[in-house]
Amino acid sequence: MTGDQLLGRRALAFSGAALIAVGSPATVAAQNTASGRRATALRCAAGAITSITLEGNGAPAGAVVVFGQVFRPGDVPARSGVLARAGEQPIPTQFDARTHHEDGSVRFAIISVALPRVLPSRQTLELRLFVGAPSAVSHPLDPSAILGNRQLILELTPASGKPWRADLRAMLEAAPRSGITVWQSGPLVTEVRLRTPVPSSAVGSASSLRVIADLSARVDGTIWLDLWLRNDTAMQEGGGDAAYSARVLLDGRELLRTGPLRHYHYTAFGRISAFSSDGTPVPVPAFTRHDLHYLAETGAVARYDASLVVSEGTLSAYGQALAEPAWSAPFNNRRITQYMPQTGGRDDIGPTTQSQAAWLISGDRRAAVYAMGQAEAAGAIPWHHWDIRGGEAGSWLDTRRWPQLWTDARGGRPPGGLLQQVPNTTGWTPEGSHQPDLSFVPFILTGRRAFLDHLQSQAAWNVVSSWPHPRGGAEANMVRFNQTRGTAWAIRQLHEAGWISPDSDPQRDYFRRCEANNWAFLRSQIPAWRRAQGEAFGWVPSDYDPPFECKPWAQDHLVSTAAAAARKGNADARAVLEFMSNFAVRRFLSADQGFNPRDGAAYVIATTDARRTPLKSWAEIGAETKARGWANENGWSKSQGNYPQLALFSLACIADVLDSAEARRAFSWLSSAGAPFTAMTDYPHGPVHRVVPRTTDRPVC
Question: What domains, with CATH codes, occur in the chain?
Fold first, then answer.
């Protein structure tokens, strides 16, 4: 693929805007230390829910900042809103609730605030959020007037033929015939989504390309366009690869140009840009840093160690990657591993990604923009399958309409397979057991709707890409005939999509049902597994593994997913976590029962005999592990990888969610046992597994 991008000073691509902010060490905020950066310590105020820190970039007073925020059950009651204050000064605030807890309180909202003053570069402003009356909507910005008299055109030109144009202002004015949907509505921001199919004549021959434009106006006079070209329509004639060049024209002037492109089927490409209503340059928005402790209390993320100083070398490497010209090229992989079956030291796989963990812990802009860039690049992965007949407005392909669908080429023709197979020339090899979680954290921290699209498409792909026979067709069983880590990551994606998707989203209940089916299945197996496994019960068998083997680190992956769901109140997931905690914890506390605790973090241990009959005692497991040459003995030769880090992550989650004293004791032992890559000096460069048990009852704002 080839392409180029032209960005004027009045039209800042999102990554480009951020590059202006982080391209020089002088722009790094004052919280940086000489060797790295730690999270900002936020203070509580009476009655506050949480705090947000804004890091300046010179935006003027009145400039609007938009971010996402997750809330604990009950913190924002039904029919309430949120107000922001800087000290005692009220700040203009707009609150768009998108998702609610079962008790009716707000789970997730998009919050917009107007800066009370100029916020120069390197300066910060702390805002505290309080429960208040719903945002005043008596005078919301008019969606049809977002562009005013300005003309905004998307132009696609095939290799041969006439250009095709989509007039976004005309689409706004034609609402609701154009299929407009509202994402934000209030006195500070109005954002709408416009959708239109692209005729095949505009892109060669493919009829599978869609235009998705998230267009918003802010009271500060800026207009934002998050434009996506999604070649993802499935199960209709004419789908395939598209070829075109693209331009975005604002009043006849080029805002963006890219191409010529080869746009593979089931992939997407998008950029966000901004311009002002009066033609003046758009300032770089203030950067938002969330309260890490509160995020953990909501259950949205694990309890990352806020005391960790993320390495300046790591953060600088993110900044250098952002400055590379290839970063902005269409369909660039942005350092996501394209051959996903690849194992080893990948920064993009795990309970989240390294850059997302660095962002959460440090609050550093470079890590944030890098992680958001990868969430954009997730569009290039060919796991986007849109069903235009899936509900009133379409949906990602799911087993409600296609119970026997398998997107593997072996699925054949519909209804067993795709009408057009996934191209084998994209450069990507998606694979469930090593899939990265690229979009959830960027979505909950930004509220950017395109990231929700990517989260949902990946969740849907996990079901339809699995073999229909073991998954039970529409049952969506991701456990049978799957690797344990594949089970963990598939359920994780379903869990995140079901938990955060808006109340009005037609696929939210589908994702929730698929997730629920899996936890219910796992829970139903616990009595039999517990009887069979004896005193060492707690590991989830896999038909995929050879005889004898149990990989403790793979069990840790599933523990992390069960803990994430249990943390958010899922009773079945909690039952699974309680079952798994016996094995996960006791492997480090059973020396007096004949099992070397060093082997608890080995690459593989023996848990069955050759007939797959479980070994029932720690002594049997220890002896068989040693007999097969898998034991650590008095060293750590069988733990040369991140396996001890994964064990610590698992133990911390169990201690936190189940309030387990034994898990804390095991965590303490392993932390001080000298296992590979568990020293505090090992985490600043790779913080993704640096999760700690709850050790203090720090008050939450």
Answer: 18-135+285-296 (2.60.40), 383-421+442-689 (no CATH)
